[in-house]
Design goal:
mainly alpha; rod-shaped; binds zinc ion; Phage_lambda_NinG; Recombination protein NinG
Length: about 210
Amino acid sequence: MRKTRRRCKNPDCRGWFHPRFQNEWWCKPECGAVIALAKRSKEKKKEIREQEKRRKEARRESIKRKKEAQQERRHHQIRKLEVKPLSYFHSKAQSAFNQYIRTRDAEQPCISCGRHHEGKYDAGHYRTRGASPATRYDETNCHKQCAPCNQHLSGNIENYTPNLIEKIGQEAFEVLMGPHPVKKWTREELEQLAAHYRQKTRELIKQREGV
Ligand SMILES: [Zn+2]
Ligand SMILES: [Zn+2]
């Protein structure tokens, strides 16, 4: 039996009492209930705080993982482009350029045979890409041409020549036929060129739809 007095832990009571057991902290059962309820409520609050903390951590972790995956994909894409040969970027740029030429000349007949027909049209280079790589992205050098003229008549050049001179003028024709400095394209420049022509095509289509 303990002789020492203790104060009740119930903050609304704080009365003195003589504990019968080592771990007795309240003077009467009602005070014990108050203390138990307060303890439970404190624990519940702590549990909620911890749940909230875990949720936040999980969210942060998920965002971090998503960012890492995104970065990984980007790096992967860059690596994929880095191992592509320059010709890959040329073909992308050329296809955007050719698309622009076909759009620009949409209302015009084939530059060589002068026909309007339902078949397929190409963007036909006057000076060929192989013989004159410096003029492969020259707008005066490329015009809408029907597939038969472009593919089966080697460009139908005897008819292309007078029609081209008529279309762009003698002066531009001579500039086109004159010497051109050979350009060393980089991947970035070719990507920019492709983007430039995609943009030009979009603007042209929008402009026409607006009229
Ligand atoms: Zn009490
Ligand atoms: Zn033709």
